Amino acid sequence: MLSVERIHSYYGKAHILNDLSFEVRRGEVVALLGRNGAGKSTTMKSVMQLVRPKQGQVVFQGENLIGQPAFRVAKDGIGYVPEDRRIFTDLTVIENLEVGRQPRRQDAPHWTVEQLFEIFPNLSERRANRGKHMSGGEQQMLTIARTLMGNPSLLLLDEPSEGIAPVIVEQMAATILKLKAEGLTVMISEQNLHFARAVADRAIIIEGGEKKFDGSFKELEAHPEIRDAYLSV
Amino acid sequence: MAFLFAQFLTGLANAAALFLVASGLSLIFGVTRIVNFAHGSFYMLGAFIGIYLMEILPGAVGFWGAILLTGIAVGLIGAFVEMVVLRPIYRAPELFQLVATFGVILVIQDLALMIWGAEDRLGPRAPGLRGVWRIFGEPVPKYDIILIAITPFILFALWYLITKTRLGVLVRAATQDREMVGALGVNQAWLFTGVFALGSALAGWGGALQLPKGGADLLMDFNIIGAVFVVVVIGGMGSLPGAFIASVLISVLNVFGVTYLPQSTLVLMFVVMAVVLIIRPYGLLGREEVAGEHGQVGAPETPIRPYGPMGQALIAALLLGLALLPLFVDQFMLILTIDMVIFALFAASLHFILGSGGLVSFGHAAFFGGGAYAAALLVFHTDTPMELAFLFAPLAAGLLALGIGWFCIRLTGVYFAMLTLAFSQLVWSLAFQWRAVTRGDDGLVNIWPSEWLSGTETYYYFALILGVGGILFLRHVIHSPFGYALRAGRDSPRQAEATGIDVKRVQFVAFALAGAMAGLAGGIFVFAKGSVFPTELEIAKSFDALIVVFLGGVKTLAGGVVGAGFMTVVEDWLTRLEYWRLLLGLVIIAVVIVMPEGIVGTLRTLWRRIRNTDEETV
């Protein structure tokens, strides 16, 4: 579904992603693992074209995304949930969802506001509240719901468990599995191996912008030295 | 009592057009973060197009239909301007966008002159609403009552659009985080164009609606922009209810001002604004601007270094050339060069506060004209010797800058820019309306230098020494510890404060210094010309300096000086043509889009590129 081929991305002169390639197949949940600064967020942004790779290709459903504006990428069916959430704090929950609304897509699950409120009951209670009056966990739910309003076929979740209470993290894991059951393809970036293993089918480990591992969690368990070298446990 | 009430109604009626224009400006600013100086031009276009349409469409239906169509037409013009001029430069620094919109003003001014001629037009009366109604025995024009009745609907319609529709939700979301809106699948480019078109349409409607009360003339654009800025600043940038309250406040105040204090109508508005901003720095309903909130962090500044031997040799050669100039050229060239030196110092002083201080002042003419007026007033009223009066120019301008700076320095970004603009308008209106002292637009004449300085050649050297001295002094300050502190405050105010720099005080002192230097330029100016008029205090004068700094290049030290030289020559050449504004406007827009680093910056980049390719081939 998504194929990233040998991309190089930069922030100014800093070389962040170095010849990175990977694939995401339809229907799977892939975890992108790595330490702080390994390049996880940059990878997601490079797919979204919020960071523009200087070399390489990002092919989504047969179409090269390189050079497209971000809104085009979103319209093509990639939903992006940024790490720092970036909800619209002056807008209410309902209004935040409205910003994300896009027409339904044939190859992707379709979401209505009411369906999303079933998945995220907390949001339903706070539908008329402004974003700035919500807790971190609620804001995280809101960003995911907002992105789902675009009916994406691929969801990019950047560190969804970061800075959230453990109870909510568990809810989050259940939610991601529910989304997978609905037929959504998901790529999450994570530092939390435990959380990643609970939701993902496959792990990709990066370090210093290079891919170090790509395989199942079983394989990863068979090589504890990889885990020790590239993940902070 | 009845009379007061009638006056109040007139004020309310006047508020309608003002509110329409101000809400358009506020809306555009909220989403695009562009302070659209050309907004007054759209208002003017609305008036002219409105008259044209009212003439061809008959009757009451024609009248109201014409108003409706005018807004749509101006909206389309706005969309065109946004796509051609602004779209390429959204990622550029604020100043570029401002300068570009200023270019648009010039182009529209001359196009309007070409199409509709220089004559003022009287607006047609609204059919069926020609007479007056008596309210408590006082006559109130029927059209005023209609305007008062319409205004709440306009406010309601705008409020509905912004709070209840998808477009409104997207607009508010984009005001906060445009990139995220894009990542959610919204085409920002069209959202921006749509908002710009809507804002322009509102200005156009304002221009058309006021026709039966006023008319159309070529000065409308600048005349309204001051009031609109005051309204938007008092109400709070981006707040529609704020713009409404402020429009009513300013309009009512104006009506009473005309009746009771006819000498001070212009001043009154700015006094009210100053009072409001002292109490509420971000306007009545405004929200504090958080630096960097909108995420447009530009490339880091390249540190400015003192010139190397090459640069010093170049400057020495230039100075030598200037010193020997009288041997080679005629009197006209000398006078032109004096103009250039004056302009260079004026621009360098703005460049100092803008480039090194990061404070975009829109009212720098207040100090240039202020210095000129200070010296001229002394000579005119008390026959002060020229030498003493001349010294007074930078002193008075510096003091004026201390006074204005005290209000302005607390604010940042757009609020700072607006407030400096408003204060400069205040100074201008003093010079314009306080006829007993300043003789208004008759100006102060016969302000000549002393005997020993009176020859063109002698005065040339006088101007050269002081002008170049002032510029070198400013350069020296930039490379002193004070200059480092100033630049630190520009690049990272918090970091600077954490290292023990009192950022606001450093900026305050720098602002006063820049004012004094502009005053020095004004002093040289007034004795070179022998007269001074309120035009030296106009918005256009402040903009000249901004454009020059921009043309030269904000991030280069020589920028102001090079830009001033360029501008003086180009203006001298262009003003001989009939439609020079059009050409100048187009040149400005082209430079903004093609050479965003300014003349000096572009030359430097070219030079580096040439050198690099040399190295590569070797």
From TrEMBL, chain A:
UniProt cross-references to InterPro entries, sorted A to Z: AAA+_ATPase, ABC_transporter-like_ATP-bd, ABC_transporter-like_CS, BCAA_Transport_ATP-bd_LivF, P-loop_NTPase
Domain ABC transporter: 2-233
Listed GO biological process terms: L-amino acid transport
GO terms assigned for molecular function: ATP binding; ATP hydrolysis activity; branched-chain amino acid transmembrane transporter activity
Protein keywords: Amino-acid transport, ATP-binding, Nucleotide-binding, Transport
Protein family: Belongs to the ABC transporter superfamily.
Protein name listed in UniProt: Branched-chain amino acid ABC transporter, ATP-binding protein
TrEMBL record, chain B:
Principal localisation: membrane
An example molecular function term from Gene Ontology annotations: branched-chain amino acid transmembrane transporter activity
Gene Ontology BP term (one): amino acid transport
Membrane topology: Multi-pass membrane protein
Keyword Protein biosynthesis on entry: no
Annotated TM spans: 6-29, 41-57, 63-86, 98-118, 143-162, 183-204, 224-253, 265-284, 304-325, 332-354, 360-381, 388-407, 413-437, 458-478, 508-533, 545-567, 579-603
GO CC term (a single one): plasma membrane
Cellular compartment(s): Cell membrane
Keywords carried by this UniProt record: Amino-acid transport, Cell membrane, Membrane, Transmembrane, Transmembrane helix, Transport
Keyword Metal-binding: no
Family statement: Belongs to the binding-protein-dependent transport system permease family. LivHM subfamily.
The name this protein goes by in its record: Branched-chain amino acid ABC transporter, permease protein
